[in-house]
User: Which sequence fits this backbone?
């Protein structure tokens, strides 16, 4: 089964990196505990939290308590609890909206990306919600390296 997460508001960076790796991850700047638990149950999401009070709630069963302070250690900690694939689905999901990116024709992005990028890249993706354009630029290799350092892909 596909892993889906809902992340408490203390884990914003972790949420961002899970999205970068392609995981369906909900994150809200501010959300009531009840609401968060409700969404987790309805959508079958694993709650990622630093809140030891939250996990004592009766309805909270499917959760992982995160102890580390920094996102890279948090990601490693998470991978020690569940099997994560951080390499296969990079750049498939919008970091800002969590929506799945879809490929967009090159001609359509001519005025939306820097000229150098337009000249050197051929594959562009866009978010259906915020319409931001993504591509596999130099940062893509960096991202891969960073994630591979945390959890080496076999
Ligand atoms: Zn978006």
Assistant:
């Amino acid at each position: 089964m596909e892993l889906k997460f809902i992340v408490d508001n203390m884990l914003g960076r972790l949420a961002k990196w899970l999205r970068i790796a392609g995981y369906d991850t909900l994150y809200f700047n501010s959300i009531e505990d009840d609401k968060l638990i409700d969404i987790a149950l309805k959508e079958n999401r694993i709650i990622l939290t630093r809140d030891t009070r939250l996990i004592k709630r009766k309805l909270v069963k499917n959760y992982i308590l995160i102890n580390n302070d920094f996102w890279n250690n948090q990601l490693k900690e998470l991978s020690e609890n569940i099997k994560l694939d951080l390499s296969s689905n990079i750049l498939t999901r919008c970091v800002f909206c969590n929506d799945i990116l879809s490929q967009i024709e090159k001609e359509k992005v001519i005025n939306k990306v820097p000229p150098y990028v337009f000249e050197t890249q051929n594959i562009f993706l866009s978010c259906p919600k915020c319409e931001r354009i993504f591509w596999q630029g130099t940062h893509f290799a960096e991202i891969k390296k960073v994630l591979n350092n945390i959890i080496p892909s076999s």
About this structure: The CA atoms of residues 20 and 90 lie 6 Å apart. The domain at 4-81 is CATH 3.40.50 (Rossmann fold). The mean pLDDT is 93. Residues 94, 96-97, 99, 127, 129-130, 132 surround zinc ion (CB under 6 Å).
